[in-house]
Amino acid sequence: MGLEEIIKSAKGEIKADLVIKNAQIINVHSEEIYTADVAIKDGIISGIGENYSGITEIDAKGKYLSPSFIDGHVHIESSMLLPSEFAKMVVPAGTTTIVADPHEISNIIGLHGISFMREASKDLPLDVYMMLPSCVPASPYETSGFELNSYDLSFLIDRPWVLGIGEMMNFPGVINLDKEVISKIKLGKSNNKRIDGHAPYLSGKNLCAYAAAGINSDHECTIPEEAIEKLRNGMYLMVREGSAARDLDALIPVLKEYPGRKCMFVTDDRYPSALKEHINLMVRRAAAKGVNPIKAIQMASINAAEYFGIKNLGAVAPGYQADLLLFDDLEKFNPEIVIKKGIVVAKNGKMIVDIEKKNLSSLRGTVNIRWLDEEDLKIKAEGTRVKAIEVTEGQLVTKSITADIKIKNGYAESNIDDDIIKILVIERHKASGNIGKGFVKGFGIKSGAIASTVAHDSHNMIVIGTNDNDMFKAIKELVKSQGGKVIVNNGEVKAKLELPVAGLMSDDTAENVTEKCIELKEAEKEIGCKIAEPFMTMSFLSLSVIPELKLTDKGLMDVVNNKFTDLFEKT
Asked: Please, are residues 393 and 532 in contact by the beta-carbon 8 Å criterion?
């Protein structure tokens, strides 16, 4: 089999392997819909027209046939699933290609983490391309398990599964000509590969400098004005709809008013419960809010393929990889059939092909903290008012506020009545003993503590709580399981999800992880938490590259002014 057979199949001289007959084809090139047969040979679309015959034939009966969907920016680790389990969730939803940035695991175990994710992603009914992490660590203001420089990345940049340099979060480093940052950009450009961006609120001449450096995209736009400015500067707009950061609704006016070929859909960070509906959910919601359905499908398919330079992917056209979806209407976008490389892999929301569990190399224990006593969690009071982090549900950007705290025996404690809760970030890679201490507003917790080893991007241990006893208990639980998420109330563990793979992922099934996530949700309500995704929201409170105020293991970070700041308000 080969090129000759594909050509013969296109001409109708030999039978195709699979023919989808009587389909309404959604053509993302010509932006039209028309009825035809689609012939597939050796996983490639060989022909589109009338009277094709195949060894296997599917009568579409007038249903719609579109390219399957592409997630242009996702961190698999954030799903807490290994790639095989992740595939089981997203493929039936119509996503058959993803562009993954493994910077979560890279912050913990470096290049070994990228290699681990690559091996775990092989031989799936899901193409997993990767962007090399540009910011490990995200900034010098936190402690990561590893640092990756341009020399490290040069070992992988020429691999065909590597599409470029991942989100350049250190935009101050770009603007201020940081040598290591510039060398990573040059590495991507010299290999003719993409450089993804991450620049919330960057504007004016600084944005021009960022784009002029060759950074081609951004997924941090939260308001139309920001998105429009970046489009005007020639950048691709990655519209994000994750579990914590949800920007689709806010950016709908841009998608309706402006040309859409430089826009694509991404999920960035999603929990398992949000994977059953993936990119298809974004297509459906965009269309429901007035975006032309063909335009929405372009954003979910061909736009990402063309941006990343993935040839012959993302369209229903001869010579393109036969990654296709068959669905009933232009409202629901729930695929009845998912085809990957010419093979039907899912029907009616369920996988119909087996994904074998791999025997992956084990990873060393990654939760290594210095021996702690409960006394180590205390904050010596240096006043009655503090700078606190205020969270806004659905956004990664935080506010810097001043707030009153309680004083007991000379120590600052949570002010539960005003929703001012203690937060700690504990270094967990090198047992340095670093503990960042502060306060956060917006969770609504009335009792107990929640803790996790998922804390972007260095993934130190992060804990918020109303009292030191429960916080200390939560810390001990995460050390025992070598990672995870836990809720403790009145000294009792109410719910726990173990994440022993680098403290980020479970080695369990998606179903079992989902069940434990449900138990965590129930425990969240029990302690009075008022936001929908507290663990996801909490996980970004240590990300020292997103304004305004964040907390790392090294201290309280004023991101706007790019410096550490005092916790207590000076009088």
From this structure: yes
Tokens of 230: 């970046």
- Looking at the DSSP bridge assignments, the partners of residue 399 are 390
CA distance 238 to 255: 11
Q: Tokens at residue 223, please?
A: 């308001």
| Degrees to nearest 5, angle at CA 50 with 65 and 60 | 35
CA distance 74 to 52: 38
Residue 130 and residue 495: Cα distance in Å, rounded?
A: 33
**DSSP states of 194-210 as a string?**
EEEE--TT--HHHHHHH
Instruction: Give the chain's mean pLDDT.
Output: 95
Q: What is the 3-state secondary structure (H, E, C) of 331-371?
A: CCCCCCEEEECCEEEEECCEECCCCCCCCCCCCCCCCCCCC
Q: In this structure, which amino acid lies at residue 526? A: E
Q: What pLDDT score was predicted for residue 1?
A: 55
Q: Which domains does the chain have, with CATH numbers?
A: 74-288 (3.20.20.140), 374-564 (no CATH)
Question: What distance in Å separates the CA atoms of residue 217 and residue 235, rounded to the nearest whole number?
Answer: 5
Label residue 156 exposed, middle or buried (CB < 10 Å: 0-12, 13-18, 19+): middle
- Interatomic CA distance for residues 370 and 386, integer angstroms: 27
For strand 162-168 and strand 385-390, is the pairing parallel, antiparallel, or unpaired? unpaired
CB atoms within 10 A of CB 55: 11
3-state secondary structure of 96: strand
Task: Please give the structure tokens belonging to residue 64.
Answer: 């719609």
Indicate yes or no: pTM above 0.90. yes
Helix/strand/coil for 236: strand
For 394-452, write each residue's pLDDT tens digit.
788 899 999 999 999 999 999 999 999 999 999 999 999 999 999 999 999 999 999 99
Q: Which amino acid is at 438?
A: G
**Is it the case that residue 86 has pLDDT exceeding 60?**
yes
Question: Both tokens of residue 301?
Answer: 């398919």
How confident is the model over 130-186, as pLDDT tens digits? Answer: 999 999 988 889 999 999 999 999 999 999 999 999 999 889 899 999 999 999 999
Whether cis (ω within 30° of 0) applies to the bond prior to 548 is yes
Q: Are 466 and 447 in contact (CB under 8 A)?
A: yes
**CA distances to 102, 140, 533 from 165, in Å:** 11, 19, 29
Check: CB of residue 451 under 8 Å from CB of residue 445. no
Cα dihedral 106, 107, 110, 116 sign: negative
Q: Which amino acid is at 399?
A: K
Residue 532, SS3? Answer: coil
Going by the DSSP 8-state scheme, the letter that residue 501 receives in this structure is B
Type of residue numbered 564: F
Which structure tokens are listed for 62?
A: 């007038």
Distance CA 454, CA 513 (A): 15
Single out the residue of 94, 46, 93 nearest to residue 312, CA to CA: 46
Distance of alpha carbon 239 from alpha carbon 51, whole angstroms: 40
CA 341 to chain CA mean position, Å: 25
